[in-house]
Amino acid sequence: MDRKKLNYSLLIAGPLSILLAYGFINGEIHWSNPNGRPIGQRLAYSQDPEEASESEQYYQTMTLYRQEPITINGIAQLKTDQTYYYNAERGDIQEVYVTDGQVIKKGQPLFKYNEQKAVYELEDTRREQTRLYNQRERLIDQLSEMTGNAYNWQGDLIEGYWTEDGYQYYVSVPIGKGEYVNKPVNPPVMDESGELVAPPEDGSADGIKDQIRTLNQQIEDIDIKVARMLKDQDSQVVAKTDGKVILNQDGKTDSQVPFIRVISEDISVTGSVSEYEFYALGEDRPVNLYVDAEDRDVTGTMIHYDKIPKVSPRSDESNEPMYNASQGSSGTQYGFTVKADEFIQPGFTVKVQIGLPGYVIPTDAIVYEGEKTFIYTVQDGVAVKKEIKLERQGVKQVVLRGVEEGEVVILYPYDVKEGQTIQVMDNAEFDQFDMEGMDYDGH
């Protein structure tokens, strides 16, 4: 609840001596403000408006204070926590490059597998790759001798011309790959491995070209296979993030136990708010953290929050998203992350106090003139008219700039003129007063 003070102000339009002529009474004051609503507040003393001079009017005022922060429950977590397990399919772990407690950087090697089976498979595939390359090279040489033409490494017909930079080559007729251009009498067959078997050589140039095309397709396939095996055979496991190493030797041979964890030294506090507190979230917003288990206060900064609620997967084919709402009546939740300035034990519950910017302005203090909004404040005993820009925070209207803490705002200023003399009477003062819950009958 916003901290506010409620005062009664006396508009002095006549001589001050008239004020001193009133006696003191105990009771309630009841009179109507310009919008017809009765105002009542029990006072220790006041003047009876029935006996007051017609040149005097009473006004209600409110002192502006900063909004009270809202408190949300959160939990301390490691900012990053990467876990690495032993994978028996990749072989035994041959070498470990890090030690327990070591601080490492992203991309730094952690350990290495002894993947002997994968090494053997790669060697066999490379031998097969070499045989195909050699076979194609022999056929291209044979074709060149038969036709007297020049061919490049994959059998394309090339021609050339002289320039100042020397003899330049270009492909005049590409040979292609895969299908036979000159259809053999017998259809092509596959061997046991599923590869296309070249037809018997007919001794002609066209027959040799068909064999080269088949080899080009086979070589393309085996090149892709080798590249994939090289990628899979990379026996080194590297760190995905910066952090501190937690090494458990039991995980070196047990795939159920984490072998290496790389944890960040930064602590994040995470939590969520409902739609009614969403307005309190903001990036780079300073927050206060209270660690209940240690009775300790820590400062922090909100570094991220959900702009829209997370979407849960749907079981049907509807294009409408299903937002992630928590169970019960709390409705949709919006997560946030706070970076703590000091270490907090991961797993500890933390109370996150989020300060709210701006000052709450009661509706009864606002004067509308066209599209502009104004309030009247009391400065040095006179009424000052200020233009303000209202922004909504949940169900409240606030002003972020143009006013200061401690300023006195006049409520129901319908007949107030700028520059009028105002004297604030502090005979009715309340802390934590809610304007929407005000009892106008004095109870």
Number of helices, where a helix is a run of at least 4 consecutive DSSP H or I residues: 3
Strand content: 35-45%
- The biggest beta sheet, please? 7 strands, antiparallel
Distance between the termini: 20 Å
Summed over residues and divided by their number, the pLDDT gives a mean of 74
Give the overall silhouette: elongated
Give me the CATH fold name of the largest domain.
conserved putative lor/sdh protein from methanococcus maripaludis s2 fold
Would you identify the regions where 5 or more consecutive residues have pLDDT less than 50?
1-55, 180-188, 315-329, 427-443
Structural class of the secondary structure composition?
A: mainly beta
Q: Regarding CATH, which class of the largest domain?
A: Mainly Beta
Judging by the overall fold, what is the CATH architecture of the largest domain?
Beta Barrel
Our Rg estimate from Cα atoms comes to 42 Å
Count of all domains: 4
Strands, count: 32
GO cellular component, one term: efflux pump complex
GO molecular function: efflux transmembrane transporter activity
Domain YknX-like C-terminal permuted SH3-like: 360-424
Keywords: Coiled coil
Structure notes:
This protein has about 450 residues and is mainly beta. It has four domains: about 5-65 and about 360-435, conserved putative lor/sdh protein from methanococcus maripaludis s2 fold (Beta Barrel); about 70-75 and about 265-355, Efflux pump adaptor protein, beta barrel domain (Elongation Factor Tu (Ef-tu), domain 3, Beta Barrel); about 80-115 and about 235-265, Beta Barrel (OB fold (Dihydrolipoamide Acetyltransferase, E2P)), CATH 2.40.50.100; about 115-230, no CATH class. The protein is about 15% helix and about 35% strand. The protein has helices spanning about 15-20, 115-145, 205-230, and strands at about 5-10, 25-30, 40-45, 55-65, 70-80, 80-85, 90-95, 105, 110-115, 150, 155-165, 165-175, 190, 195, 235-240, 245, 260-265, 265-275, 285-290, 295-305, 310, 320-325, 335-340, 350-355, 360, 365-370, 370-380, 380-390, 390-395, 395-400, 410, 420-425. The strands form nine sheets. Strands 1, 4, 26, 27, 28, 31 and 32 form a seven-stranded antiparallel β-sheet that branches. Strands 5-18-23-20-19-24 form a six-stranded antiparallel β-barrel. It is elongated and about 120 Å long.
